[in-house]
Specification:
binds ligand PMT; FMN binding; globular; FMN; two-stranded antiparallel sheet
Amino acid sequence: FDYNLLTGLHVVVTAGPTREAIDPVRYITNQSSGKMGYAIAEAAAEAGARVTLISGPVNLPTPTRVKRIDVVRAEDMYNASMAVVDEGCDVFIATAAVADYRPSVTAEHKIKKSTEEIHLTLVKNPDIVAAVSAHAKRPFTVGFAAETRDVVAYAQAKLDNKKLDMIATNDVSGENVGFNSDNNALTVIWPGGHKVLPLAAKRQIAKQLIELIAIRHKRD
Ligand code: PMT
C-alpha cells in the first residue's frame, strides 16, 4: 500500500445509515453499521488524503486524522455533502446506505395506538451521489450499490444513470458480506473496465478500493 497515493487530495466519504423520523420516538432506518465507510475514510487518510467523513448514526470511533460531520436524516446528509462539494473536493465516495424514502410528515407527538390499520406515506429523498456527480465542481465520484440479485447488471445501470466514475457493488443477500459484517467482497466497475475484490476484511477491501480510485482519478 502506497502511503502517498492520495497526498494533496481532499476525499469526502459518506457512511452509515440515515434515520427518517415517523414521530419523536420512531424512525425508519436500515442495517448499515458504517464499518465499510469508516474503513474507506481510514484508508484514504493513510494514503495521505485530507478526509471528511459525513456519517449517519453509528457506533464507531472516528478514524485518526479524519474530520467527521454527524448527520441523521438523508436531507441532512445531502446538505452536508453539498456544502463540502461547494467548497471543493477531489474525490467523493458514497458508501452510506441513504434511505430512499422518508415519511411525508413527522408527527409532532408520539402516534397513539388506535385503529387496526394505519398508513404511512413515504416520499422520495434527494439522491446525494447523483447530485454530486451533476455538480458544477464535480469531484471524481464513486458510488456503491447494495443488491440482492443481478448484482452487476443493477450496478452498471446505477453507474450510467447517476453518471458516476466508478461503482463498488456488493451482494447483500448473504450473512458474511455487506451490511454489518466485518468482511466484504466487491465488484468495482468503471466505464470500460472492472475488478473483483474477493472476500476479505473491510479494512483490506477499503485499501484495495482506494488504490483503484487513485489510479482511475489520476487517469481522468
Ligand atoms: O455500513 P456497513 O454495515 O459496513 O455496510 C456497508 C454497505 C453494505 C452499506 C455498503 O457497502 C454499501 O453497499 N453502501 C451503499 C448502500 C446503498 O444504499 O446502496 P444503493 O444501491 O441503495 O444506493 C446506490 C448509491 O447511491 C450509493 O452510493 C448510495 O450512497 C447512493 N445514494 C442512494 C440514495 C440516496 N438518496 N442518495 C444516495 O447518494
